[in-house]
Amino acid sequence: MKKNSRLEIEWYEKGGGKNFIKRYIYQQYMWIEKNYFKMPNSDAQNCGVYGICFNDRCVYIGESSEIACRWLAHIYHMCVNSRDYWGLDIQEIETATVNIKMQVIDDGLVDEEQRRYLEFKYIDKYNPILQLRIDKYYPNDKAEYDKVRNIWLPRDEVRPDQCVIKKYRREVIEKSIIKSGI
Fold it and tell me: How far apart are CA 69 and CA 161, in angstroms?
């Protein structure tokens, strides 16, 4: 069963999602079309670690057992709630001020522990800007809730795959992508 929400699937199928992806992220459209409708884990190529870049600058590293589904969720949020999730204005995508690229970094990773380990390794290697420490706001730049212990974790215990909190994402993107001219 696909992990996408009903809203994401409807957006993709009937709400302009396919057209948005075809127009602004064409390579990913072809990959999603090829891989999205397969059964989970039916193709190891769809399991692995992936990166998202804006103007060729890595902004996010993630892992998934169904990369096509995750990409669809990410693109949905780029389109319908871009500023909160990605620090972008939709106009920056539509006017090509920001070009989006998604790519599989390491595939064939069916084992979740292996994917998670490699995700952290690639975060350390590529330094995605939405997952970096922001010295100016540290230790309040990231947050993670531990559902088992029912507490907010101290900043030094927050996993490296967590993004900076939403209220700082636009500032990070403006500084690193928009105003730098990258």
Answer: 18
pLDDT digits (tens, 9 = 90+) for 32-91: 777 665 545 456 668 999 999 999 999 999 999 988 888 889 999 999 899 999 999 999
- What gap in Å lies between CA 119 and CA 64, rounded to an integer? 10
Name the strand (E) or helix (H) holding 54. strand 48-54
10, 72 Cβ separation under 8 angstroms: no
Q: Are 20 and 87 in contact (CB under 8 A)?
A: no
pTM here?
0.88
Angle at 103 between CA 102 and CA 105, to 5 degrees: 140
Specify whether the CB–CB gap between 68 and 47 falls below 8 A: no
**CA-based diameter of the chain, in Å?**
45
Across 98-111, average pLDDT = 92
Cα gap 37→95, rounded to integer Å:
30
